[in-house]
């Protein structure tokens, strides 16, 4: 499936950026604009997110194939492939299964391991919200408070709310995403035995636990040319929380 793409920049080496769970290509807008003076940047909306079509299945092999097909359709490969969280796992599997389209790989705060299932309560709270009489985003924000107590997280989730003359509705395919959460939290069996030999950079937040020291043996088995860059003051959303520090780690690697 070809994915919706937002492009930035007119010339330079191609860079594809991919968002995490409940995100969209718009999450990368500020970083992409900063990169666009030296690169052509393409922000993808992964399946069932953003403006992508709603489809009934959502696995990492399917998402990796979507990415390969979209890069091929743009005619810009091989690219520097950058992905955060779920997008980072998608980027890893794309590099492992379709290395011809990946010139170098950047993984932001994710590892090729299975994590405990997360965000189930977010999906359930979003689906349970009564949107029938919503007039303002604050109306939905109030409904999410119990399940999502952190204001910043609610604000992030509310970026997925469409509120127009037709009423209020969620942009992502929430039922399919919720059903796919165990697979999204995991790591696909299809990756076993594969190796990506290209240059690889893992950027991680010093205040996040998604990339741990004991993951490094597993990471190196898949990505033997791996380098690491820690952004000490960042949590999981590295590029949103500490953009300058994130770009300082990223730009020397992608050229």
UniProtKB/TrEMBL annotation:
InterPro entries: AB_hydrolase_1, AB_hydrolase_fold. Coiled coil: none annotated. SUPFAM superfamilies: alpha/beta-Hydrolases. The keyword Kinase does not apply. The keyword Ribosomal protein does not apply. It comes from the Bacteria. One of its GO terms (molecular function) is carboxylic ester hydrolase activity. Residues 14-241 form the AB hydrolase-1 domain. Keywords: Hydrolase. PANTHER family: PROTEIN ABHD11. This is Pimeloyl-ACP methyl ester carboxylesterase. It comes from Kribbella kalugense.
